[in-house]
Amino acid sequence: MTARTMFDRIWEAHVVAEEEGEILLYVDRALIHEGSSHAFAALKRRGQKVARPHQVFAFTDHYVPTSGRDRGIAGIAVDEIRNMVIAQHENTKLHGIRLFGFDDPAQGILHIVPPEQGITQPGMLICGADSHTSTHGAFGSIAFGIGASDMTHVLATQATWQRKPKTLRITVDGELGFGVAPKDIILAVIAKIGAAGGVGHAIEYAGSTFRRMSMEGRMTVCNMSIEAGARCGMIAPDDTTFAYLDGRPWAPKRGVEWDAAMALWQSLPSDAGAEFDREVMLDAAQIEPMVTWGVNPEMAGAVGGSVPDPKNAPDERRRSDWAMALDYMGLKAGMALQDIRIDRVFIGSCTNSRIEDIRAAAEVAKRGKAVVPAWVVPGSQTVKRQAEAEGLDRILTTAGFEWRDPGCSLCTAINGDQLKPGERCASTSNRNFRNRQGPGGRTHLVSPAMAAAAAIKGHFADVREILK
């Protein structure tokens, strides 16, 4: 029998039909947020209903404020956002969809809540109304974002038309050095292969480094697969995956149901000898804490390095890109990354707002005081409660950090949380494009610990020196 990749195995199990190179795939989970009202409007115009509402899950996260939540939905200051949240409640109730809404004790980001609730499981095909749906691939699933019209089709049929991507295996072996985080790994990967290095591919992350990694770390890595241009990212399920899922509300229950699920889950990993269209390898020991200096995640370097000179770019395209990036970011070639002063810090987003991320930030925060405004935004109410039970919120607030309510917040900057023109932010989010965090805002991507270090120093600093 021909050795098969995990991606091929899951893909083939979901094929419904094929026509002229387009493949109709069955969708196990559809994830939507409060900005998905257009899909419900389209269904209404067509006189259609949601085909399988029990496989659709809705989340209030992108637009909701992350402060002043005690006033309830009526207290949302922006009329458009308030009406969007109200419409979401009405639409999900009408169609019988489970909503993790504004007042729900499990409310949070659509890439944080499904894993912690056990909604995300190995072997599934998951579509979300957000590009970072790739996060869920950390469980050994095929997960990707789709547009508005595609989501309408999924809601109406529980299927989606797609073209099959190629496969790319990225292997990272070895033990990470002190102070190096999963966020540093994915930034190092993107710096190596480029922001378009994964275009047309599904990435499988393999190697001893990922096998030792927690589920939180794996989700961070898979989350940013899309920033390398990939269709999705995934990691083979193993004992770490199974232990994480065991006992979660939507996960299979112990007994016959669990045993059947395990039989499937354990059959998913790529076969020995399976061939990939491309292979890339990195040595974990060579990865250091990273900082982006430009306007895409590829423009990144180790914290001990410096801003590169466009004159030294490997080709004319990148020479031009680097020059324009430095102009927008207000940086000079050759300056040390640790000399870059910042105006704000944001710790949150679907990339880095889980309990491990909050713990990492608090571990650094307790060694100083924030000298710039610094927000910590947990990814869900569940994370928020756990952090507070561990006293992490008190550590952070004592150090001058602001502890906020769950939501996408400053990552998307569509909810009132945004940078002022020219403000420079150390951010644990996933995108550093021009204007991403607000018109004229300048974003530097870092790990939670590196962000906390920047908050207490006022400039980028090597977190390893602080933690020693």
How would you summarize the topology of this molecule?
Elements: H1 6-13, E1 15-19, E2 22-26, E3 29-33, H2 37-46, E4 56-59, H3 79-95, E5 98-100, H4 113-117, E6 125-128, E7 142-145, H5 148-157, E8 159-162, E9 166-173, H6 182-193, E10 201-206, H7 208-211, H8 215-223, E11 232-235, H9 239-245, H10 256-265, E12 278-283, E13 290-292, E14 300-302, H11 316-329, E15 344-347, H12 355-365, E16 374-376, H13 381-389, H14 392-398, E17 402-403, E18 424-427, E19 442-445, H15 448-457, H16 463-467
Parallel strand pairs: 3-4, 3-6, 4-5, 6-7, 9-10, 9-12, 10-11, 15-16, 15-18, 16-17, 18-19
Antiparallel strand pairs: 1-2, 2-8, 13-14
Which descriptors would you attach to this protein?
single chain, alpha/beta, Aconitase, domain 3, Aconitase, Domain 2, 3 domains, 5-stranded parallel β-sheet, globular
Count of the separate structural domains? 3
Oligomer: single chain
Structural class of the helices, strands and pairings? alpha/beta
Average residue-wise pLDDT: 96
Shape: globular
Low-confidence stretches: none
Largest sheet: 5 strands, parallel
CATH topology of the largest domain: Aconitase, domain 3
Number of strands: 19
**How much helicity do the residues have?**
25-40%
Over all CA atoms, what is the radius of gyration? 21 Å
Q: What is the beta-strand fraction?
A: 15-25%
CATH second-level architecture of the largest domain: 2-Layer Sandwich
Q: According to CATH, what is the class of the largest domain?
A: Alpha Beta
The rounded distance between the terminal residues' Cα atoms is 52 Å
Cross-sheet strand order for the largest sheet: 5-4-3-6-7
Can you identify the CATH superfamily of the largest domain? Aconitase, domain 3
Q: Helix segment count?
A: 16
